[in-house]
Design goal:
Elements: H1 12-24, H2 31-38, E1 42-51, E2 57-66, E3 74-80, H3 86-102, E4 108-114, H4 123-139, E5 148-152, H5 158-171, H6 195-211, H7 214-220, E6 230-234, H8 238-249, E7 253-259, E8 262-265, H9 272-281, E9 294-296, E10 308-311, E11 330-332, H10 341-349, E12 353-355, H11 357-360, H12 363-377, H13 386-404, H14 410-417, H15 422-448, H16 452-470
Parallel strand pairs: 3-4, 3-5, 6-7, 6-10, 10-11, 11-12
Antiparallel strand pairs: 1-2, 2-4, 7-8, 8-9
Bound molecules: nicotinamide-adenine-dinucleotide.
């Protein structure tokens, strides 16, 4: 039944909890245990002064929420946005707990946020904000390789992670595993190949898995596979850009793009690299001048005709105002919380396949987990076995050639004997994780006859409840 009440005033955390309660009905667990799984374990709120470049002083507000300590460290990105508030940080931390459980990453969930619009600050000011925030987290024990490990999120990237790692190491001088205090770092500073593109790549693997299912695609009136499928992207940042790139490489067609400054539509497709370059050259201000496309109001982009709608910006974009006008057959939630609880009900009732955020954008935390493991083991993945495996493969194909009397071409031999590099291993680990998790969610959804968000959360709650049960406290 579609709820008629407006969810406009319902907080983000309340909406996440609404989805949680719906999913918890499928899990056989004690109510107190479910409360323990649901409630945010710890929140740190901080305000500190920033001396701006012009000498004026501004008070900066920030948060770090650790939703769950059932596994340690807790893990979650840091967001820089003018809309950040305590409720949002807690909601995103909760989503992180469920996300980690869905993809079997052994962390609790956390999230950080600073209420600033990064475009209003110089590089130097951003560095001072990031370093002070990190020092505050250290002082209150809200960061550390075994405590709580931040990562990039909306408005942050490698540069901020690099400042965090450097500040942590300066204060915790000599701590052996200090590099593992944050993930999403630059490669030269303990980062891992594939982390920057991981969330978008994971979105691609998730969508590819969903679109490969003949029965589900038939129900939606679509062919199997990504080739020829049209999609609209909201937000061409880190996640949106990479998801679009891999979808296009696999044959999908980007027909619409919505960004902060405007939205464009072209039935025949939009060239991703040309849009990205055009925006950079025009200071991210003049998307409406991009040649050969139709200009449309920003919000209308979500209602464009397409096979896949992909919000990859902020939350609450699809709500009870526009949910009934969404024309896409698949809603791929690349962003966190892009759909309100009320809108979700409307979409599901309309037969739209909603692939939920807690699963679909989990590629980022999955590869962050690999980076954390790399930092703890102090060795690049593949370093020990690459050559060994290459030699073994060469021996094997030599034996095949001798036995059959046939010779492989040089290109075939090269492909067959290639040992795995770090990038290969990360990508294959990500692909395996996203594919496995999708099948688990789909199978749960079918078994209980529920939507995929409810199924994904039920899968997560079940796993977390099991950890708490094994502690012997809860019945
Ligand atoms: P980002 O800052 O790199 O990109 C966000 C993009 O959205 C920017 O290009 C921005 O201009 C655009 N945008 C802002 N407001 C918009 C609007 N009203 N309409 C259209 N576009 C708008 O951020 P990101 O890291 O790509 O994160 C995007 C989403 O993905 C967030 O919800 C984030 O929590 C989620 N996410 C990110 C990661 C990660 O690894 N970065 C991992 C999991 C989930």
């Amino acid at each position: 039944m579609i709820s008629q009440s407006s969810h406009a005033e319902i907080s983000f955390l309340a909406q996440v909890n609404e989805s949680f309660d719906k999913a918890a009905r499928l899990v056989d667990a004690d109510k107190t245990l479910l409360d323990q799984v649901k409630l945010v374990n710890a929140v740190y709120r901080i305000a500190f002064p920033l001396v701006r470049d012009d000498g004026s002083i501004e008070v900066i507000e920030g948060w770090r929420a650790e939703h769950s300590h059932h596994k340690l460290p807790s893990k979650g990105g840091i967001r820089y946005a003018s809309t950040v508030n305590e409720d949002e940080v807690m909601a995103l931390a909760a989503l992180m707990t469920y996300k980690c459980a869905i993809v079997d990453v052994p962390f609790g969930g956390a999230k950080g946020g600073i209420r600033i619009s990064r475009h209003n600050y110089s590089e130097g000011e951003l560095e001072r904000i990031t370093r002070r925030y990190t020092a505050e987290l250290i002082a209150k024990n809200f960061i550390g390789p075994g405590i709580d490990v931040p990562a990039p999120d909306y408005g942050t990237g490698e540069q901020e992670m690099s400042w965090i790692a450097d500040t942590y190491q300066a204060i915790k001088h000599g701590e052996l595993n200090s590099m593992a205090c944050v993930t999403g770092k630059p490669l030269a500073q303990g980062g891992i190949r594939g982390r920057k593109e991981a969330t978008g790549r994971g979105v691609f693997y998730g969508l590819r898995e969903a679109c490969a299912n003949e029965e589900d695609m038939k129900d939606l009136g679509l062919d199997t596979g990504l080739t020829g499928k049209t999609f609209v992207m909201q937000g061409l940042g880190n996640v949106g850009y990479h998801a679009a790139k891999y979808l296009i490489e696999d044959g999908a067609v980007m027909v619409g793009v919505a960004e902060r400054e405007g939205a464009i539509y072209a039935e025949g497709g939009i060239d991703l690299e040309e849009v990205v370059t055009f925006r950079q050259e025009n200071n991210f201000k003049s998307l409406e001048k991009f040649p050969g496309v139709q200009l449309i109001p920003n919000r209308a982009a979500l209602e464009l005709p397409c096979d896949i709608l992909m919000p990859a910006a902020l939350e609450n974009q699809i709500n009870d105002d526009n949910a009934s006008r969404i024309k896409a057959k698949i809603l791929a939630e690349a962003a966190n919380g892009p759909t309100t609880a009320a809108a979700h009900e409307i979409l599901v009732e309309r037969g739209i396949l909603v692939i939920p955020d807690a699963y679909l954008n989990a590629g980022g935390v999955t590869v962050s987990y690999f980076e954390w493991l790399k930092n703890l083991s102090h060795v690049r993945f593949g370093r020990l076995q690459k050559r060994f495996e290459e030699r073994a493969f060469k021996g094997l194909i030599n034996a095949v050639e001798r036995a059959t009397g046939k010779r492989f071409t040089e290109a075939e031999a090269l492909a067959l004997t290639k040992g795995p590099s770090e990038a290969d291993l990360v990508d294959s680990g990500l692909e395996e994780t996203m594919s496995d998790a999708y099948q688990h969610i789909r199978e749960t959804a079918k078994r209980h006859a529920v939507d995929q968000r409810t199924a994904a959360l039920a899968v997560a709650i079940e796993k977390i409840a099991l950890t708490y049960q094994s502690m012997g406290i809860f019945p």
